[in-house]
């Protein structure tokens, strides 16, 4: 059997342990800034420890979610901007558990890279930390994996897991019924969905670049595509215990219809009045330059709606006082409807 004539190291195979250690050292003190009294472990432990305050929480239900940011990562890599993609990830996950009434408690991240770049990793973690602080969520652990042969050298992947808590009697959705009003909260842009289609249109077909100025929006394409995914926790936290709030739907992949239908009882449907949606110019611009059909636009993009509230019809004014909130439709008995969610 043939043997190597000289020794080979892990670094020769493409994995630099010292770079990983340097990355952890650079972020350790920053990560601690997200901790609260419930965090019982330190970064680098085999598992993150988090205690439950049973004085504050009476009948807590744990709510968890795992997600990524899709091909928005490719935009971050193209732009060399890494300090916002972590915010996108945390905020997306926060919104996903918010729809069940949960308040985030802690977050864990996964970063897989082709070649570990401590400076880049630090910027990604900075974004995670920023959003964790904004959402009062502790970043208690994660994984950095250098995997040459799986990822190209300049590529990386990013995913996260969030755990939140909600009192059992405050779980959402609750008491959803025909006649409930639908109130939309504005998105900051594409959020984290539809990027594969956008990239194909603007980069492959139209040969644009991130510095292309979109006059309809008074911003560059890069600025528009890297707009940070909004977190709705800060503005909805005080409404979660309100019995007139019956449900929430985070508008991600699948658009308004695909996500709203996830929380509706089998015998109910929704009517969305398109004229009531304030679609930002960026979406209209994409539709025009890409010659995208109305159906594909509705299936792919949030159309400027990041979160939909299902509320009691007699409490609409209570919720439309939220900045940017607009009534866009209502729930119906859809026994005779062709679609669960209809656009009119």
Using the alpha-carbon principal axes, give the shape: globular
Compute the gyration radius: what is it? Answer: 22 Å
Order of helices and strands: HEHHEHEEEHEEHHEHEHHEHEE
Assembly form of the protein: single chain
Number of helices: 11
Provide mean pLDDT, rounded: 94
Distance between the termini: 73 Å
Could you describe the largest sheet, including whether it forms a barrel? 6 strands, mixed
Structural class: alpha+beta
Number of self-contained structural domains = 2
Number of strands: 12
Key phrases:
alpha+beta; 4-stranded mixed sheet; 60s Ribosomal Protein L30, Chain: A; 344 residues; globular; 11 helices; 6-stranded mixed sheet; single chain; 2 domains; 30% helix; Phosphoribosyl-aminoimidazole Synthetase, Chain A, domain 2
């Amino acid at each position: 059997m043939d043997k190597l004539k000289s020794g080979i190291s892990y670094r020769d195979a493409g994995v630099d342990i010292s770079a990983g250690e340097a990355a952890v050292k650079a972020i350790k003190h920053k990560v601690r800034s997200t901790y609260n009294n419930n965090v019982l472990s330190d970064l680098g432990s085999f598992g993150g420890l988090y205690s439950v305050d049973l004085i504050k929480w009476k009948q807590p239900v744990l709510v968890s979610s795992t997600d990524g940011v899709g091909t928005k990562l490719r935009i971050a890599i193209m732009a060399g901007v890494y300090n916002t993609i972590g915010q996108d990830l945390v905020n997306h996950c926060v919104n996903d558990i918010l729809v069940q009434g949960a308040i985030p408690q802690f977050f864990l991240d996964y970063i897989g890279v082709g070649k570990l770049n401590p400076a880049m990793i630090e910027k990604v973690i900075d974004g995670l930390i920023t959003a964790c602080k904004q959402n009062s969520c502790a970043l208690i652990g994660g994984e950095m994996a250098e995997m040459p042969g799986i990822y190209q050298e300049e590529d990386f992947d990013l995913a996260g897991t969030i755990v939140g808590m909600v009192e059992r009697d405050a779980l959402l959705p609750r008491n959803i019924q025909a006649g409930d009003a639908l109130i939309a909260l504005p998105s900051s842009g594409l959020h984290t969905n539809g990027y594969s289609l956008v990239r194909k249109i603007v980069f492959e077909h139209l040969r644009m670049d991130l510095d292309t100025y979109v006059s309809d929006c008074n911003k560059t394409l890069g600025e528009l595509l890297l707009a940070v995914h909004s977190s709705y926790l800060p503005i909805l936290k005080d409404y979660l215990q309100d019995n007139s709030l019956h449900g929430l739907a985070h508008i991600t992949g699948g658009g308004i219809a695909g996500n709203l239908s996830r929380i509706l009882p089998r015998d109910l449907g929704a009517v969305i009045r398109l004229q009531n949606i304030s679609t930002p110019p960026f979406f209209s611009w994409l539709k025009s330059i890409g010659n995208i059909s109305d159906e594909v636009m509705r299936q792919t993009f949030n159309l400027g709606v990041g979160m939909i509230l299902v509320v009691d019809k007699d409490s609409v004014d209570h919720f439309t006082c939220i900045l940017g909130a607009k009534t866009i439709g209502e729930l119906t008995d859809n026994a005779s409807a062709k679609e669960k969610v209809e656009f009119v």
